[in-house]
Amino acid sequence: MLNKIINKQVITLKMINSKVEEKNNFEKQKNTNKETKRIVNQLSGLIDALYDANQILDFTVDEKMFDELFKTNRDLLDTINTTQIDENVVINCRNSINSITKEIKEQWQFFYSKKTTDMLKTLRFLKNFNKQNIGALEQQFAEAKNWTGNKETVLLLKESMEQANDIIDNLNMNETVTDFFKKMNNGTATLVDLNEEVLAWIDEKNVKYKIKLKFE
């Protein structure tokens, strides 16, 4: 009699465990499906952002990264088209997207520096003439420095560069004048660089009292 009761309890417990495992598997698959949807949206947003950056500012990433993006996209599509999404594939795709995003951020930093270094140096000098407007423009550049994956950031950098070029163009700073102020900014300008062309520009813009000379 006792054996029958025990056996019945064992069978009951096994049934309960089976139900619990079924529920856990269902919840696990549900979470995997949810994560898959998030990753698909993330990858789609990343591809759109790269397209926008290329169209707006001619920013591009290397061929190896494009290959990795397309492979990740294919892997996601393959597992989505199966009867049950593979959790391991989803994890690998997530890691791949994170790695790609990190690399894009580094390449954007290089691109940003290449596009803006000389421009920002010139603006730092011109800030002596128009502190408020150029200060606000410098803030815009700072906001566009880091890759966010948003089209707005790319547009902000484009607009900031256009505004900076307008300011510089309106001051009629030719290459000789620009080179002089670059040297002033990094502390290498000498009286030899202060030639007639530069002196004429300084006189025309009436900024002679804003330029300080000093001995080493």
Describe the structure.
The protein is mainly α and 216 residues long. The chain has helices at 2-57, 63-80, 87-126, 131-143, 151-170, 175-186, 196-204. The chain is rod-shaped, with a radius of gyration of 30 Å. The model is unreliable at 2-24 (pLDDT under 50).
Keywords:
single chain, 216 residues, mainly alpha, 7 helices, 0% strand, disordered N terminus
Produce a short descriptive summary.
This protein is mostly helical and 216 residues long. The protein has 7 helices and no strands. The chain has helices spanning 2-57, 63-80, 87-126, 131-143, 151-170, 175-186, 196-204.
- Secondary-structure element pattern, one letter each: HHHHHHH
Name the poorly predicted regions.
Answer: 2-24
- Secondary-structure-derived class: mainly alpha
Largest sheet: none
- Rg over alpha carbons: 30 Å
Overall residue-averaged pLDDT value: 82
Q: How far apart are the termini?
A: 106 Å
Q: What's the number of extended β-strand segments? A: 0
Hey, roughly how much beta strand do the residues contain? under 5%
Summed up, the helix count is 7
Walk me through the topology.
Blueprint: H1 2-57, H2 63-80, H3 87-126, H4 131-143, H5 151-170, H6 175-186, H7 196-204
